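Per your request, structure below.
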C-alpha cells in the first residue's frame, strides 16, 4: 500500500472519532495535509475556527504567520507535511487537556510512521508533550535532538504565541524562524550525506 492509501485508511478510522470531548464541538476532524514524501513534518496544536470550517490545518491567521516564517527560513510549504496534536477544533483561549492529547496520540504516531519525515518541528507545548511526553519548557528543547526513532526533532513556539503576546511578538517570530532554519539545515545536511 502506498502512503496515500495508508493515510486514507487512517483518516477513515478517525472520521467519526469520539475518543475525547472535542468530538461534540468540532465540525469534523481536520487531518494532516501536505507532501506525503516530506522530509519535514510540522506538528501544531489543534485546528482553530478557520481550520475547522475549511477542514485543513493552518489556513487561518496562525497559518498566514507560519507561511511568512517558512518563507523567511527558505522552506517551501508545498514540500512540507503539516498536522496537529489534536484533530479537532479547540476554542480560542481554551487550554488543551492531557487526556485529549493522549486520546489523539496513537493517530499522530501512525501519521508519523506513514509519512516518515526526517525532521519534525513541534509548535508549542502540547505538540512537544505529544511527541516527547515532556512538559519541559520549549526554550530548553530548541536545540535539535535525534529521537530514538532516528527522526530529528526541533521544538519551537507556536505562532499564535506571537499573536497573543504582542509585546514579545517580534522576538517569538524571530525565534521560530531561527528554529525553522535549524530544521532546514538538518535536511540539507542529510541530503548532502545521501548524495555522497
Ligand atoms: N493552530 C494550530 O495549532 N493548528 C492549526 O491548524 C491552526 C492553528
Amino acid at each position: 500500500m502506498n502512503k496515500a492509501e495508508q493515510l486514507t485508511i487512517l483518516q477513515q478510522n478517525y472520521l467519526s472519532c469520539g475518543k475525547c470531548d472535542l468530538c461534540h464541538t468540532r465540525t469534523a476532524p481536520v487531518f494532516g495535509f501536505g507532501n506525503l514524501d516530506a522530509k519535514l513534518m510540522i506538528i501544531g496544536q489543534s485546528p482553530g475556527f478557520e481550520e475547522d470550517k475549511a477542514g485543513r490545518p493552518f489556513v487561518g491567521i496562525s497559518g498566514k504567520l507560519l507561511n511568512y516564517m517558512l518563507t523567511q527560513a527558505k522552506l517551501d510549504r508545498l514540500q512540507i507535511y503539516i498536522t496537529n496534536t489534536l484533530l479537532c477544533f479547540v476554542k480560542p483561549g481554551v487550554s488543551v487537556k492531557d487526556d485529549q492529547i493522549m486520546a489523539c496520540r496513537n493517530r499522530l504516531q501512525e501519521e508519523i510512521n506513514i509519512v516518515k519525515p526526517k525532521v519534525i518541528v513541534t509548535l508549542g507545548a502540547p505538540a512537544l508533550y505529544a511527541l516527547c511526553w515532556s512538559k519541559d519548557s520549549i526554550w530548553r528543547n530548541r536545540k535539535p535532538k535525534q529521537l530514538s526513532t532516528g527522526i530529528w526533532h526541533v521544538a519551537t513556539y507556536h505562532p499564535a504565541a506571537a499573536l497573543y503576546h504582542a509585546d514579545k511578538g517580534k522576538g517569538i517570530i524571530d525565534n521560530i524562524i531561527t528554529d525553522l532554519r535549524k530544521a532546514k539545515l538538518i535536511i540539507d545536511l542529510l541530503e548532502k550525506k545521501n548524495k555522497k
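Helices lie at 3-14, 49-54, 61-72, 98-115, 125-132, 159-164, 169-195.

Regards,
D.
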